[in-house]
Inverse folding.
DNA sequence: ACAAAAGTGTTAAGTCTACACCCATGA
DNA sequence: TCATGGGTGTAGACTTAACACTTTTGT
């Protein structure tokens, strides 16, 4: 017996949504597609599953190629399977999203792909159903970050509370009271204050913090009620 | 140009996790697998994607075959792609979970599949990675039901508040104070009281309610903070 | 009349929100 | 010295949690 008989075999793709934060706004990494169809158009970084690797392995492989980075936060988003999603051939694509520290991103590696960071508000049209993927990823990130501390993945190893607040404000496109924000974020016990200050943003300087990794894993589930109005969150 | 060259083509399966509630406990519908490998073992209901259908269409087709039902609550859970998950051939499977009113389930249709409902606590060992699928689905249901009113999908068109409470208690394996429970559930505005009572559970009888579908869609997002301790919920 | 489940209200504790002033520093 | 962003506390509103007794009715 060598396999299932009479069943269709289908090309299995992966698409990677890479998000970063530049201190101002949430950005997504896009490439200029290097092959047909839709060659030369802006696109998510993707690839195809090989016979001997899982989709997680395929995504990590592709992300390593594109960004030079390993071991980043990576989560399966959804599998897109409309029979007409790819005009060239019936293809199923599983989308993954990654949250990376934009500073670790290795610029030289992407020369081949002509990769560029785009603020989400000024993103070009994408090919196939990738627009839908981006919207779903944003919903997922907003939903999840309201309950879990995933946004730390977008920051460097040390960061200030005002930076963290800007990140939350940019993800939720809202303004948060800084007194309430710092009270809550400190109350989680996830942050450890450092001696040094970041003087780049102000004359007085803001203290650096880093994540208490022990508490991070322990409290990953318990980081609730962070956002003023967790309405507008989606399934 | 007729397709991608040099890319692997892989069998794409779907697996359906069908949940129901019998008034006592949450149950899952399993079948005796009718083909190799693992023929005769207890398994999730599954199938293969045809070239011309999406995975959602495939799932609905398979669920219709198994249960006779259409249009049930169906959500994509996760895509499982370990290269060794199926010993016969490399197969990728996307799991979907369905929540159905167990009373609508059409018994005659499953004769071919030897389907049976199992309380989750007394579930037999499943084949391949299906055990993992069930665990992930349970986590997802608990997570989502803490924030959204999906558990109504498991109840008949009319139900009583004590029945609803039993359902929540069984999903979360916990006890909830009935005064607080009814206050909260009524405060959502999702329930409409009916004139009649269900006399089956007690001598006095409990009023029937049904879901206000208008509010249901409007408030699907806003049904928050339902469960005493939304700790133990998973990503 | 009694057993068994349904139904209902209050109070205290805790959490959340709104809000304004002083601090430190570089230019 | 002044302009800029950093840092902090409180009071009122609201929400949540804990808790017990009365009602209905079939047997």
């Amino acid at each position: 017996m060598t396999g299932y008989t009479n069943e269709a075999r289908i090309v299995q793709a992966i698409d990677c949504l890479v998000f970063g934060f530049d201190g101002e706004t949430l950005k997504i990494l896009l490439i200029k597609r290097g092959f047909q169809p839709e060659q030369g158009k802006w696109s998510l970084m993707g690839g195809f599953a090989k016979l001997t690797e899982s989709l997680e392995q395929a995504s990590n492989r592709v992300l390593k190629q594109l960004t030079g980075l390993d071991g980043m936060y990576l989560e399966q988003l959804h599998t897109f399977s409309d029979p007409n999603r790819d005009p060239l051939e019936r293809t199923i694509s599983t989308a993954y999203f990654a949250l990376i520290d934009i500073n670790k991103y290795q610029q030289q590696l992407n020369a081949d792909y002509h990769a560029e960071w785009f603020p989400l508000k000024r993103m070009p049209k994408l090919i196939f159903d990738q627009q839908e993927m981006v919207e779903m990823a944003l919903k997922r990130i907003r939903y999840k970050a309201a309950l879990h501390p995933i946004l730390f993945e977008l920051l460097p190893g040390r960061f200030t509370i005002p930076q963290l607040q800007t990140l939350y404000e940019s993800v939720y496109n809202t303004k948060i009271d800084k007194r309430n924000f710092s009270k809550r974020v400190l109350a989680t016990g996830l942050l450890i204050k450092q001696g040094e200050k970041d003087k780049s943003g102000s004359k007085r300087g803001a203290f650096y913090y880093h994540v208490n990794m022990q508490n991070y894993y322990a409290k990953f589930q318990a980081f609730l009620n962070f956002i003023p109005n967790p309405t507008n969150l989606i399934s």
Summary: Residues 160-162, 178-179, 182-183, 197, 201-207 of chain B lie near DNA strand C (CB under 10 Å from a C1'). The CA atoms of residues 8 and 90 of chain B lie 11 Å apart. The helical segments of chain B are 55-67, 130-145, 161-172, 178-187, 213-219.
